[in-house]
Each structure stands twice: as C-alpha cells, then as structure tokens.
Amino acid sequence: MKRHFVILTIVSLSVIAGASSEVAAQPGKLLTNASCATTTCHGNQSPESPVWARSLPLHLALDPHAHAGVVLRGPLSQRIVASLAPESTQSPVVYDNVLRTRCISCHVTVDAAACQPAGELSDEILGRGVSCESCHGHAGGWVEEHVGPDWRRLQDEPSVGFRNNGSLIGRAETCLRCHVGSRTEDGLVRDVNHDMIAAGHPALRFDLLTYHVNLPAHWDTTSDQEQALFSSSIRVREVGQAIGLAAAARLSAERASDYLKTGRRSDVVWPELADFDCFACHQSLSSDSYHLPAGKVQKSDLHISDGLPVWNAWHSILLLNLRQKQQWLSALSPQNYDPKQMAEIGPQIAEHFSDMARQAAERFPSPMAVLGETIDDLHANPPVDWHAAAIQFLRIEAVAEDLTRSGKNAVIANRLNAKLPRLEQLLRFDASDTSFNSTNFLMSPKGFRADRFRAEALDSLGHPIPAETP
C-alpha cells in the first residue's frame, strides 16, 4: 500500500512539472489538471504569488480530495469491495471493476467512459483524486475562454460547461453531487446506497458549513465576495440544509425512475433503504437500551410511529414544518413509498426546497431571533432521536459563531461556546462500545438519550426545564 501511495503522489505532483498549455477547445471534454498546472496559470509554487496562481499545489498538498483516489486501495475500501463482490479478493480485475462502477465517479475526476467495467485501473487515474474539473466542470469548453476578456459573460453559459462556485447555492450544489448523490449529473452515477453503507461505507450526512470550514482553501478567502458569503453561519447552514434536502429528493426520484426503467436489476432496488433513517431499524431492542420517547412528547409529522424510519432524516428533520402538502407527507412514509409516486413528486419537492434555499441565501438572520426560535422548539417540540438533536446542535453552534463574530451579546456567546463541547460529546457515537458487534464500526448513536440532550441544551441556552410540580 505504501508503494501505491508513493506512486500516486509522484504522479500527482509530476502533473505540475509536465503540463502543456496548448489545449484545443472541446466542450464537455475532461482535460485533467494538466491543463491547469503551468507556472503561469495555477501551478506556481512560489509562496509570494497570488493564491489563484498557486491553487493547484495548495490543493495537492493540503486538500484530502486530492488523495480520494488513493484511499480506494486502502484496507477500508478493500473490506467494502469484498462485501460487495467477494470474488474481488481473488481477482484484481473484479476489484477494479467494482471501483469503476461504484466508486470512482466520486473519488476520482473521470468521465462516464472510465466508469464502465473495463478492467484494471491505472495509478494515473487513481492518482488524480478529486481534482479541478470535479468542482469547476470539464474544462474542454472553457480552458482558453476563462482567461479571455468575455469570460464574465461566458462563464454562466450552459454550453460552456463551467460550474460557477461563486454563490452559496452554486457551491452547495457542486458538493452535493457526491456528498448526497446524483444518478444523472455529468452522465455519472454517484450513489451511496444501502448496499454500500451495509458494506462499510460511511452514511452521507453533509453539512455545508462544517465541510467548508474544514476544507483547506486554495482560493482567496480574504476577498470581499468570500467574506460576504460566509458572514453569517446561520445563513450558510440554512442554505445548505435546504439545498441538501432538494438534492436528496432529486436522488430519490432518480432512483425511482431508474428502478421503473430497469426493473429488478441488482444495482437499482426499491425501496432504497438509504432514503430512510438508519437508526430506526439499526438499534438495540433490549429493554435497558431502547428508550421510547415520553408519551407527552410531540413527534414530528414524519414520525408516524415508533419503528417506522423517517425519510432522509438528516436533511428533513428541521424542515418538516415547512412541508405544507399532505400528499408529500403520505408519499414519503415507508408504508406508501411507491416508485411511480416518488418519481413524480421528487422533482416537486426538490424545486420547493431549492426555492427555499434561494430565499435563505438572500436573508441575514438575527442570531438572537434564531436563538429564541431554538429555545421555543426545544420546549415545544423536543428532539425525539439523534438526528433531531444533531440538527438542533448545528443550529446552536451557528448562533454561537454569529454572536462571536458580531462581538455583541458577549455573555451569551461565551456561555454557548463553553457548553458546545458538552453537547457535541452527547452526540458522539461510542466507538469504544464493542458489546453489540465488534466487527462493525458501530457508526450509530447507541446509548444516545434525547431527553438528556434536550435538558443540557436548554440549560446552555439559559432556559432550564422547569421542575415538575408534585
């Protein structure tokens, strides 16, 4: 494995040295990062050069996306592939064909042809990782145009094929093609379904703000545009959650459509269990660890009854009160999850929440107002499971960040910042608990208590739950 890492790193870095600047315009064609890597473009390695001029070396050196292809040769990937195709342990060709058809559409910058089961993958392909064109669009139609005088006008032309990440929504949509999934974008299938999660792939729970903060920047974070985009953590989180739910609805509709077209083909099944809350089914049923919510707790609309999973809980929990169409609520119940119905209403749901994201992108919420809403929610609609609590935590965290950034209400900001680590600890999965299944990675909130989280959250907000009168 060390040999692969060394080879792939050398392949990636050698791109900078050997790139050619002469690329003919070919709309939709993948050029790889060789087209970006000259020292007069984005491959300059001098620390004195502008960030845009050294963006490729920064990406290769610091960004985990650059090594996303390398991990497909690692031990976790080997276990996942072996679960999906046991014969892959004896055949490199079978192994690489699984990577081609299931993995590289997200882990590597490729075109649709590379995702066909065509045999062994070269180190050069895996060494690309997720590079420039995964996020900025295949460069064949714009690599020369983007340095020309008409670029500001051309960059948003669909025929050019450039992805504009200059807005919150544009950036979120770029990320969500992989971090939620899509079966149609760029002609690629990017779908972490239940089979892959059961094989060991982490479930996808994307948060735009968290991912963006943790991503090493290869762009100018000090520009006025960038500062404006991320001047409100609450705004970023609201946009990300709405556009994430839109992407999830769109993916569900695409799964349904593909199932209707192909029938019971092995890679398209219905119902697709990845559309639902994992932990509703994957939980201990022992009496000492199964905690039913108190009878007086108000459940959300999609918590039909205990034991029935919620549709796309990570994306939907905080937004359930914004769904106003009963037909959607009915269609998203696991009891009524019909592929024809989902193929029809999925795009409607996606457009509804895309519109909500567009509206959220124009607002700058008051942190104190959102804090008040959060307190009201925790009193009136207590979280009944891990997903609901996690989303409320993200909301409190965003409020704390905005209050800290503004310098106002310092006492409240300091109290929240002091309490956030404890709330986060309550949400963490207990990886040390091997009592259930030591061969699994226990990526579930076994032992999580929603009532305890609610009590400590309200205490951190200065609104403890009143003691009950006898």
UniProtKB/TrEMBL annotation:
Residues 100-137 form the Cytochrome c-552/4 domain. It comes from the Bacteria. Residues 1-24 form the signal peptide. The keyword Calcium does not apply. InterPro entries: Cyt_c-552/4, Multihaem_cyt_sf. The keyword Signal applies. Keywords: Signal. This is Cytochrome c-552/4 domain-containing protein. It comes from Neorhodopirellula pilleata.
